[in-house]
Amino acid sequence: MIEREGTDVDVDVMLQDLRTLVEVESPSRDLVALRRSAEAVAALVERRLGGRATLVDGPAGTHVRWAGGGEPRVLVLGHHDTVFPLGTLEHRPFRVEGGRATGPGVYDMLGGLVQAIHGLATLADPSGVELLVTADEEVGSHHSRPLIEERARACGTVLVFEGAAEGGHLKVARKGCGTFEVAVRGLASHAGLEPEAGVNALVEAAHQVLAIASLSRPEAGTTVTPTVAAAGTTDNVVPAEATIVVDVRVPSAAEKDRVEAALTNLTPRLAGAEITVTGSVNRPPMQEEMASGLPAQARRSLPGVEGVAVGGGSDGNFTAALGVPTLDGLGAVGGGAHADHEYLVVGSMAERARLAAAMVRAIRS
Question: Cystine design at 242: which of 7, 110, 231, 352 (Cβ 3.0–4.6 Å)?
């Protein structure tokens, strides 16, 4: 029996639940680990919220769904995959010291999941609430996107429990983001005897790296950043192949179209070289107007909190692009996402859990 009426959040219990999730490591693309993690999330949801959590298997991992019954009104959205490989916990275990919780995924975004669940647990009536926790957000949500979009349309409002912005603020706008791969094909030859007989894919890639980087428009908020490059097989062979991975962040649909067109139309500088470009801006820009009146509702519960624009993408980009009112950054207050110094501010956990409950009540009223 789940007792809801009059209950409040207990930070010590929240920390115990956070430890449980952190200690079930959940690196993206590891289907076995993600299944274990999904089972742990589902067990936590059922223990705190009652009812039945459903495991949804997919090509990129296992998602978790839960519904409080009745007509769907609000989708609480998050993910349980992290960027950290198995074994990270051995040298960076879960700890609580000096008012901070640390460990892989505490801020992005297991802390937000725990806060959302405990906040929902204080509702006397959970009807109208759906919870969706996906397994592939950190690698682009290519497989979970249809499910996310389906439930967002059905619910009509989305609350995303990604980590808060700096200062604990909410996220009302995000850049569109995507990854591209530029493959260069040249022709191998002996680097000492007849380098001129080959087509050096590495040299061609060097030309392309400069061309790609020049597509950035910092004044507009657009960044086009070559991040990974590979070429060659051994030191005395003119390389026949090279690849460049490019991270793209754009603030608007117009910039998305410009950058995608420019990358698609890259042309070789060396005679005989060939270029193939794959990828896209997978997550569309999240525009501030799609937060609708949600930031004002949040301020009524937590005075001083504001909505800000950030560079990183989330699954909120997808739901906002559908025209569904979306508010992001409702999760943990902390920092260091994707880094060894990742942390969560323990003192903020209770108020963020209460904020989750207050937002649901306001949306349903």
Answer: 231
Catalytic residue among 137, 138, 255, 260: 137
Q: Angle CA(46)–CA(324)–CA(337) in degrees, nearest 5? A: 60
- Length reported for the chain: 365
Instruction: Answer yes or no: 12 catalytic.
Output: no
pLDDT of 163 over the 80 cut: yes
Tell me the pLDDT tens digit for each residue of 177-226: 999 999 999 999 999 999 999 999 999 999 999 999 999 999 999 999 99
Q: Is the CB of residue 180 less than 8 Å from the CB of residue 246? A: yes
Q: In angstroms, rounded to a whole number, what is the distance separating the alpha carbons of residues 351 and 357?
A: 10
Catalytic, out of 25, 81, 108, 138: 81
DSSP letters spanning 110-153: IHHHHHHHHHHTT-S--TTEEEEEES-GGGT-TTTHHHHHHHHH
- Rg for the chain, CA atoms, rounded: 23
Going by the DSSP 8-state scheme, the letter that residue 313 receives in this structure is: -
Give the pLDDT confidence score for residue 20 in this predicted structure: 98
Handedness of CA 100, 102, 105, 108 (dihedral sign): positive
Tell me the pTM: 0.90
Whether pLDDT at 6 is above 80: no
